[in-house]
Amino acid sequence: MRVLMLCTKYPLDPNDRFMTNELAGALVAAGHRVQVVVTEWNAPLGASASTVRSGDGVDALVISPRGVAGLGRFAERITKWTLSSLFARREMRKVLGDQSFDLLVCFTPCVTVAAQLHWALNRWKMRSILFVHDFFPHHHRSIGLVPRGPVFEFARRLEEHLIRKFDVIGCIWPDNIAYLRKHHRVRPEQRVIWTPLWGEIASPVSQPKEVIRSEHGLPLDRKILVFGGQITEGRGVEEILGAAAMAREARPDLAFLLIGEGRLVELVESHIAAGGDNVIYRRRIPRAQYLSLISACDIGLACTVAGVDSSSFPSKTIDYLRASLPIVAAVEEASDYRKFLEQWGIGVSIGAGDATALFRAAVRVVDDQEIAANIARNARACLEEVFNVTRAAKRLIDAIEMPVAGYDSH
């Protein structure tokens, strides 16, 4: 099968695996040909497009964003979403126009690839599947990235228009299937399924914690709580810093390590400069180093924000489990993620938005060695059963090949 994958995030560094390149690699390993088209959002505006073949046999067309700078953050974001897609369509037409594909794989938000999506579906008669990992623009309105009113309504209508083009729609939680149907008009013939996240599940190379900490300049005499991922809105960064401020006086044996990049890095650095010496910040590092580093920590933090009414799934969970870290999560009150942690016995959770509750939950896990030991035992079974990317690739193909459309929650 010839697969075309439209992505907004596809790391090309072999040491920096993400769910998109994990899936593409698994599809190639299963005998399919995969062409990825990715807009590299962190590249300079207007840089030239390039073609790359990864070590696992995936072909990638890498396109830089287009946008209008100097008119404010919101205007730049909107123009990047629109102009980048139009430019990417032109590049796709030049590079891929004489090829053919059997299956289109796409990820939300659809609006960021709207022009490519329209062109690809009109150019080739192929099946299509969409993975809904968050609900744009509802989630983005909740965390302040999309304003209420006409802008939100326009974005909602456009996203819904694009969602309705797919044959199969995959949601990361069963409850999100109901959310999708409530907030978007899904066509009766579209098939909606539950598709858990996936990723690399191998454990990192075992090394003594003291050696790893020394290599990275981390304290040897403290318990370290790590947050890895985007340092940006919607990730609970403020609550983590609030919990760290409480721990500075009440629990000086704790340190908080944040790893990643994003719009709130300045907030983290300002907190440290103002006396938050129990907070450590490291910029984004290659995946192999990242896994080694977090395996020398004691707790993995997974945080979102209050007021979001759909269940999200912090993808960092997979890496925490690979490193056998107990998970302390601060997520939406009604989130399926909270039930998931309890079901598998891999962590504890509280509602999002409460720095005090986050601090107390972290202290409880740090002080209870039995909790940590149980989570370490359960992590491997959870990885094998839920997150194995080979299973994810098979679910994708099975969903596309199933002839009967309709509602399906499994």
Features:
410 residues, alpha/beta, Rossmann fold, 8-stranded mixed sheet, 6-stranded parallel sheet, 14 strands, 42% helix
What is this entry, summarized?
Helix content is 42%, strand content 18%. It has 410 residues and is of the alpha/beta class.
CATH homologous superfamily designation of the largest domain: Glycogen Phosphorylase B
How does the overall form come out from the CA principal axes? globular
Helix share bin: 40-55%
Order of helices and strands: EHEEEHEHEHHEHEHEHEHEHEHEHEHHH
Q: Count of DSSP helices?
A: 15
Main sheet summary = 8 strands, mixed
Beta-strand share of residues: 15-25%
Description:
With 410 residues, this protein is α/β, with parallel strands linked by helices. It folds into two domains: 2-199 and 388-401, Rossmann fold; 209-387, Glycogen Phosphorylase B (Rossmann fold). It is 42% helix and 18% strand. An eight-stranded mixed beta sheet has the order 3-4-2-1-5-6-7-8, sandwiched between helices. It has a six-stranded parallel beta sheet with strand order 11-10-9-12-13-14, with helices on both faces. Strand 9 (223-228), helix 8 and strand 10 form a beta-alpha-beta unit. The two termini are 24 Å apart.
